[in-house]
Structure prediction request, 601 residues.
Amino acid sequence: MTTEEKIAIIDRYHSNPEQILNILVDIQFQSEAGYIDQQTAQLVAEKLDISETRVYEIVSFYAILKETPQARYVLKICDSSPCHFSGEPVVSQWLQEKLGVGENQMTQDGLFMYHGIPCVGACAQTPFVKIKGEVFPHLTPEKLEKLLADLKAGYYPELVGGESHVEA
Amino acid sequence: MLKRNAPVLTARFEAMRDDPTDVAHYRQLGGYEGLASVIDMGREQALDELDAAALLGRGGAAYPAGRKWRHLYNAAGETKYIVCNGDEGEPGTFKDKALVESDPLAVIEGMTIAGYEFKAQQGYIYIRGEYRHLRAIFNQALENARAAGLLGDHILGMADFNYDIRVISGAGAYVCGESSALLNSIEGKTGRPRVKPPHLADVGLYLKPTLVNNVESYASIPVIMREGGQAFRHLGTPGGGGTKLICLTGHVKNRGLYEVDLGTPLEDILYSEKFGGGSSTGRPLKFIHFGGQSGSIGAADQLHDCLYSYEDLKTRGLAIGSGAIVAMDDSVGIVDYLTSVANFFAHESCGKCTPCRIGTLRILELLEKFQQKAGVPGDLAVFENMVTHVTQLSACGLGQSVGKPMLSGYELFPEEFKQAINWQTVERKEVAW
Ligand SMILES: Cc1cc2nc3c(=O)[nH]c(=O)nc-3n(C[C@H](O)[C@H](O)[C@H](O)COP(=O)(O)O)c2cc1C
Ligand code: SF4
Prediction:
């Protein structure tokens, strides 16, 4: 993602400090490595006329915003109780077997990583994974296998820097 | 006319499926009649209708909307803000998502009625970070409403009706659903709760008088204004009018979103084919967790004649809360279940006050110890005291709610807790202080 693209996002929100969450979430969503790097934090701070510390305060407070590089596909698993007792934990077992890494660890090729998050409002669709905005519901080991293969083959372009949703 | 046991808030979902942001279509289906009625009847009368409707806040706290609106109406100050809470952080809840996704214009109309009522110029809707795709739908609906002259300058051609709505994204913090934390987050700050009082209707967003209501509450407003407060109230019970969106999850056959009249028998909700359809696992249901993680737990076999109404649940120490209904079968141990709940609280505590920051973690550790059956005599008293301390000493509704699931679960199934204790070991005595 180029600096110009980041500035375009900031400008769409009129460099309004009130819009800092919209700005950071949108930039991170479109970034290759899925996190707010220091250059970005500095840029946002300058454009919104706030301190870089403020930006980092926000990034570290909000769980969706990340301070470190993420895998290309971050598979999110719900760990709230409705899902936890409805078959969701099996997904992390499957992922551990298929990817050979533990929670929050990146696969060697940098493609995959998985971790638990609180409820995403898909409680009626367990077991599922959520990648970016997309829920892949009612998984079986076979479906998950296919999903991982499809991702490797690049079938879901919208999951890597898809289009952004901006307000007037 | 409002009919009983018929969809009200979800009435347009099917018909608008192709394009839920289509203003002309929305108007054909009764849309914007609520706003027209309010302009017709006047602001004072609108407050009376809201009182008559007995609409209790759908975000979880069940605060009477009429009282909140009247407070703001009487609050001093020219500038007032309208805020819609779409943070929907309670696990097991996805009804605000459904409303924003399938009938966003109803939410916009409700917020616009509020804008008119309080002569506000700016409204905000805060949409949960995980619901990113909803922002596009909502922005499109806003755009269409502006194009139709229903937002922006001179709404409906009225010289002094200028009002617009802005979308703010959340970014994954449950505590931001707490209304004062929500306002901090909208101001671009970290979303920690403020010290209350003052009431947000006096000192809210940017220190101005502010209305904070839930998405479902706003979606109910046009119905109330269109059909009248009495008609709305008659859908429910004396203790709370209207229909309620509920989210059935866990071990019921038909998990998902439903709209029910308040006062529907709980048995119907759990077991009838129209709704939950009974257990999905072949095992009997053991307990039901109402209203989200911050709600209380009830034993399934003690709720046979319970109505799903504010007052009936209340007499049993339960509450409707967000509308989440999590059903668990008898394979789930209460200690395991509460550990998962404690994990959520420990994870989401914002850390502003010590009892909640440290207490939620200690409660989690203790429950994990119980899971290993490694409790020692005295631990149960420690557990009870700790939960009580966190509940009593925390500054906001997050910490203050910890006691509800923990103590209700403990009281329902004390035996399971006792089995977690190794009674042969030395007793742990709390140090008095
Ligand atoms: C920790 C915490 C989280 C909350 N989360 C939400 C939420 O996600 N959505 C919501 O509408 N209300 C939430 N509330 C309740 C709000 O503080 C507030 O009561 C509500 O938004 C008011 O709207 P209502 O009266 O229409 O329900 C939460 C409260 C607490 C203490
Ligand atoms: S009770 Fe918990 S969540 Fe609420 S302000 Fe205190 S630390 Fe933060």
In short: The pocket of iron/sulfur cluster (ligand 2) is lined by residues B 175, 193, 349-353, 356-357, 394-396, 398-399 (CB under 6 Å). The first strand of chain A starts at residue 73 and ends at 78. Strands of chain A lie at 73-78, 112-117, 129-131, 134-136.
